[in-house]
Design brief:
Elements (H helix, E strand, L loop, with lengths): L11 H23 L7 H4 L1 E6 L5 E6 L4 E7 L2 H6 L5 E10 L2 E9 L14 E11 L8 E4 L5 E6 L9 H6 L3
Antiparallel strand pairs: 1-2, 1-8, 2-3, 3-4, 4-5, 5-6, 6-7, 7-8
């Protein structure tokens, strides 16, 4: 009976060439998934970000990749989810430098000490140095407003699927 011996056509040199390519592909995949240290693009940042005040009011920043945004303030989550009873609405432009955004013509509902209840007479102006925090497998993307007490707008994928305990979730990052 005749037996055949299986042979490999790959040599040690071939394996040495494949190893760096495999490592490069793995690192590229990891960097794409974690956003690595490269500067984000407007397309990566775009989305609807929400913040809930302790009073229950919901502020929304809807950023698009054409560097414009819509801002709304709702009295509560239910009004936000149904897009009903908007208290304030504004549109403006935004710019990006590395991982920091500037929102132009933003309605500023709270003082520099951090939000509690939105001011019914907001100021308008540009707000700079808003940090963008890339999403991770367990956490959504965030906009970080810094000051005496930083606070975070959370990017959501759907108005119908607002995280339960939005305030508590945002407080995790404080």
């Amino acid at each position: 009976m005749r037996t055949m011996k299986a042979t490999s056509t790959m040599t040690a040199t071939d394996n040495n060439r494949l190893l760096p390519l495999t490592l490069i592909a793995a690192l590229m995949g990891l960097c794409a998934f974690s956003s690595c240290d490269h500067d984000p693009t407007p397309k990566l940042i775009k989305g609807e970000y929400v913040f809930q005040y302790p009073s229950g009011h919901v502020e929304v920043l809807d950023l698009n990749d054409k560097l414009t945004y819509q801002q709304q303030l709702y009295p509560n989550i239910e009004s936000f989810q149904s897009s009903d009873s908007v208290l304030f609405s504004m549109s403006g432009t935004w710019s990006l430098k590395k991982r920091e955004l500037t929102l132009h013509k933003l309605l500023w509902f709270s003082g520099g000490g951090g939000p509690s209840t939105p001011d019914q007479h907001p100021r308008q102006g540009s707000v700079a140095n808003i940090g963008w925090i890339a999403p991770t497998p367990s956490d959504p993307a965030l906009l970080e407003f810094t000051g005496d007490r930083p606070y975070y707008f959370i990017r959501i994928s759907s108005r119908a699927e607002i995280p339960i305990g939005l305030i508590e979730q945002a407080n995790r990052w404080r």
